[in-house]
TrEMBL record:
Sample GO molecular function, one term: metallopeptidase activity
Cofactor(s) the protein requires to work: Zn(2+)
Protein name: M18 family aminopeptidase
GO CC term, one of those recorded: cytoplasm
Biological process annotations from GO: proteolysis
Stated family: Belongs to the peptidase M18 family.
Major enzyme class: hydrolase
InterPro entries with a match to the protein in the record: Peptidase_M18 (IPR001948), Peptidase_M18_dom2 (IPR023358)
Protein EC: 3.4.11.-
Record keywords, A-Z: Aminopeptidase, Hydrolase, Metal-binding, Metalloprotease, Protease, Zinc
Amino acid sequence: MSTMEHAEKLLQLTETATSSFHTVEAAVRQLKDAGFTELDSRDDWGLSSQGKYYVVHHGSSLAAFTVGSEFTFREGFRIAAAHTDFPGLRLKPCPEMDDEGYARVNVEVYGGAILNTWLDRPLSMAGRVACRGEDAFHPAVRLIDVKRPVFTIPNLAIHLNKEINKGIELNKQTDMLPVAGMIGEKLNKEDFLIRFLAKELHMQPEDILDYEIGIYNADAGDVIGMDGEFISAPRLDNLTSVQALLTGLTEGERRQGINVIALFDHEEIGSRTKQGAGSLWLNTVLEKIMAGFGRDRNKYLGTLEESLLLSVDVGHAVHPGSPAKSDPTNKNKLNGGVCIKEASAQSYATDCEAIAIVQQICEQENIPYQKFANRSDGTSGGTLGSIASSVLPVRTVDVGVPLLAMHSSRELMGAEDQESLVRLVRAYFSL
């Protein structure tokens, strides 16, 4: 697959993965196309060599794994993890607002979004809706993606705010409320959002009980640059990694062991949820895999000693307008290859032995890579690697593609870096 083919595959995912639930839905489609079988967490798993399986966890997290044809229990798990969520805006309960005749919706900020990048954009919404079911303990759950712009957050004109180009602090409660339309006969101020959802889902408004719905940038992604060297798109953090893990797992050729990917939700808000990397869910999946081959807990725990976790999330590229924000000797560039991220504070999972493994894979396969470290007088976030490895004590290393405009509603990456990341994950699951 060429660089542009990898770019197009990633852009296809950014079009469909508009919420963490839709990220999992898109992942399931790719896995089914590759011949994977769905498992249920409530069942005992009867597994076989050369098997390919996946399991969905609470709708927004997913694990998938392949069993090598020569699997003999001596090898550890090779695991790669990414996250399904991204910064943005989320609808609150009872969101309908009437402001000077404008229908607006009440939202809260999810994760560390760059707020001003959400202004004057075409915005849509996606997520899941809980509806009345056959009994109180089994509500019906429906996914929804409107797939067309229905909101916008208009800027205040410079004529009315002459200081705007000097920098304006946006208030999350008053300045970030999307406009949906005008209050009138078509939009009743009491329930216009619920009625809209009911119409989209072909149900009655009174059957909708609750929802988890995010507002997303409806812009299409593009390959840009004079030579097509960049990808500009919403949700590159962390769909770059999700796509690399799916491709790497489905194309991996390792015969001796078990390859696993884990796609976690809620990384952008700390990972400490039932669907997040800070839960025991991945531990549970791995133990059930071993139990599916008749191995007890002691055998499972022994397997962890030979296991490895690749935490795959985006990193920071050096900014051409602010190079001083980067570490003086570890400046990562777009199209410079995969970032191997290190931090002594363990905000990136740092283990020199695990890093040496990744470096040797890159050198053996001629995959470009670069080292990343924060400036000593600042930090630039963390990933799920150190959180996941605190509950799953295996060797761990953080890698990912470098980005500009991380956490903007539209981000920028090097097209060649997606190909490099896919090649790394594929090699990790093959050698």
